[in-house]
Design a protein that fits this description.
It is a single chain. The chain is an alpha/beta fold. Helices cover about 35% and strands about 20% of the residues. The protein has 20 helices and 22 strands. The strands form six sheets. It has a six-stranded antiparallel β-barrel with strand order 13-14-20-19-18-21, surrounded by four helices. β15 and β16 form a beta hairpin. α2 crosses α6 and α9 packs across α10. The longest helix is centred in the first third of the chain and has 23 residues.
Length: about 625
């Protein structure tokens, strides 16, 4: 979570200035959870404990400094760490620590020690808090022995914990955190904070099932039992009510429609001439889609301005961390589609300026929305929602275009294209170290916002799909971005599973793109994707990745975050069906190895079934 470093000073206050902020916190109720650091110690007095107090507390402070330095919350502020008031030598001090953690809204627990401690007497017993233990690898005091002992206690009691053990022995006075230890601490904290942030929030289901798509059959027990979230179901007629009764901020609307007219270039109308709408109708559609965007945001997170206008209930919102819009077909056969709304909400900017993106799923595919949510919480960056539309083999491309694919695309490409909506961050017009990127909002410049807007056109919707009109976001992603595609699916009798494919966006010759794109819909946003191949199983070749994908949609994150997704999935007890992550990068609770260390994927399934959903 929370990659991208600390929020830069020039952006301090951006969130407060550019979007509604309520008295109880940023977008959601409850504030952000802290990481709790538990320094455990050998409880024997008269020499042993006294000789260790300084070393143990210093270790806790180093861990806290690392975490706060490396991670930011979704609003760009550094992650807060809370250290126990005293070292923990037994059950009473463990209870005092737990009491402090409850007061301080601790959602993630990291135990650290360089020495022997009393395992089951000092361990964290909270069943819902993600846990890790860092046992210092030194010889003077057996911190690694405690690590093994307390992990055994966690496993025996059914409280899975991640074990962090450095590869190399360190001297007692060595205050550095080795690179392998650092990586595991950060990976665990990214996953643990994502778990903690989701707890108690909502998924806003705006509408119901879209065109029979299984992911839009929103499964309340999945959200409740695996994620600790509730589902808030709101009929799409609520949008009509709020438009007709002016339950939105009219001052903001005036600003929003002016910004849209200036910044959002209307694209080519590819509808047959006899079907094209006149200017009056199109202007009404623009006004409607802007109002839809404001209303969907207000439904998700509330807006105090509505209370000032006399709409106190509507001002509260639904405390939604993610949401989705059914759209097709009950809405789109009559009203403008949700493409503009979905694209702008998922972007890191709008008429209010640069701000954190929302997570908002096309066609109310809540399971793809969850995969987007995972990616967002791990990276703080906008997520691309896309159809995993077509595998183009080299032969098929040559037959269709007369051209050969080369470079990274030589073995075939996957066409990622959503039916009209994708985050504008996905254009690749932001940059880091001179390369195309998708960045946390506090790193994005105004110039990059303008580049994203210039790279996007908004063609009128194709009316054979969207009878009510609307405008699709149309762009072609830059090549060279490291990307991770993921998907959550539900299987009867098994539960949720996660799929992961790391790869890259690629550029192909314009003539090839144009020919292939026209065969689908040239008004929609496209990313050409090539997964990293391993030569075996679902990653034997590009075709196999497409052939093994479990649904029609995928969530695409910037960066290679597969290892973080695997850690997060294990914390939530969701097995991973396929991935192309190096085995050395996989980090799961220590108990997973006891379900079959020689068969890691099978062990993952067995452990997840054994421990069951995190929330029962």
């Amino acid at each position: 979570m929370m990659r991208g470093g600390r929020r830069k000073a020039k952006n301090e206050g951006v969130a407060a200035a550019s979007e509604p902020v309520r008295s109880w916190g940023w977008r959601w109720v409850g504030g952000f959870p802290a990481v709790g650091i538990r320094p455990t110690i050998d409880g024997r007095r008269r020499g042993v404990r006294e000789s260790l107090e300084g070393q143990v507390m210093a270790m806790a402070r180093r861990a806290a400094e690392l975490i706060s330095r490396e991670f930011c919350y979704p609003d760009g502020t550094p992650v807060r760490c809370v250290i126990a008031d005293t070292c923990i030598g037994g059950a009473t001090e463990a209870a005092l620590c737990a009491e402090k953690f409850r007061r301080e809204n601790v959602g993630v627990s990291l135990t650290v020690t360089p020495c022997w401690c009393y395992g089951s007497e000092t361990m964290d017993m909270d069943p819902l808090t993600p846990k890790a233990i860092w046992g210092f690898n030194g010889t003077e005091r057996p911190g690694a022995v405690y690590l093994a002992a307390v992990l055994a206690a966690h496993n025996q009691k059914g409280l899975p914990a991640f074990g962090i053990y450095g590869r190399d022995v360190q001297n007692r006075d060595d205050e550095t955190i080795p690179a392998d230890v650092r990586e595991k601490i950060l990976r665990f904290c990214r996953a643990g904070l994502a778990v903690a942030i989701m707890r108690g929030k909502s998924y806003l289901s705006l509408g119901g099932t879209s065109m029979g798509i299984a992911g839009s059959i929103v499964d309340h027990p999945f959200f409740e039992r695996y994620l600790g979230m509730r589902v808030e179901a709101v009929d799409m007629t609520e949008i009509v009510r709020r438009i007709e009764e002016t339950i939105y901020d009219p001052d903001e609307f005036a600003r929003a429609i002016q910004w849209t007219r200036e910044k959002c270039r209307e694209g080519e109308d590819v509808n047959p001439p006899e079907q094209r709408r006149d200017r009056v109708r199109k202007d009404w559609e623009w006004e409607t889609v802007v109002k839809m965007t404001m209303i969907a945001r207000d439904l998700m997170v509330g807006n105090p301005r509505l209370a000032e206008l006399g709409f106190g209930e509507e001002a509260l919102g639904h405390n939604a961390l993610a949401g989705g819009f059914q759209g097709q077909r009950h809405w789109t056969d009559h009203f403008p589609n949700g493409d503009f709304m979905e694209a702008i909400l998922n972007s890191s900017f709008d008429w209010n300026g640069i701000r954190a993106p929302f997570v908002f799923a096309t066609e109310n595919d809540s399971l793809n929305g969850v995969a987007m949510l995972f990616g967002y919480l791990l990276t703080n960056t906008a997520q691309i929602f896309a159809d995993v539309r077509t595998y183009w083999s080299p032969d098929a491309v040559r037959r269709a275009t007369g051209r050969r694919l080369t470079g990274q695309a030589a073995e075939g490409i996957i066409h990622l294209i959503n039916s009209g909506a994708a985050t504008l961050d996905g254009t690749g017009q932001q940059s880091r170290n001179g390369r195309p990127a998708m960045k946390p909002f506090w790193e994005i410049t105004e110039a990059e916002v303008e580049q994203c807007l210039r790279a996007t056109t908004w063609p009128p919707a194709v009316y054979e799909y969207f009878r009510g009109g609307g405008f699709s976001s149309c762009y072609l992603s830059k090549g060279g971005m490291p990307l991770t595609m993921s998907r959550v699916s539900l299987v009867q009798g098994l539960g949720p599973v996660l799929q992961i494919a790391e790869g890259w966006s690629v550029e192909i010759p314009k003539a090839v793109h144009d020919a292939l794109n026209r065969r689908t819909n040239q008004t929609w946003p496209t990313t050409w994707f090539v997964p990293r191949l391993t030569g075996r199983g679902p990653f034997a070749d590009v075709y196999s990745v497409m052939n093994n994908w479990s649904a029609n949609h995928g969530a695409i994150s910037f960066g290679h975050i597969g290892a973080d997704l695997i850690a997060l999935a294990s914390a939530l007890r969701i097995p991973v069906a396929m991935h192309n992550v190096e085995e050395s990068q996989i980090f799961r609770p220590s108990a997973w190895g006891l379900f079959g260390a020689m068969d890691p994927q099978g062990a993952d399934y067995r452990a997840c079934v054994n421990f069951g959903p995190l929330y029962g």
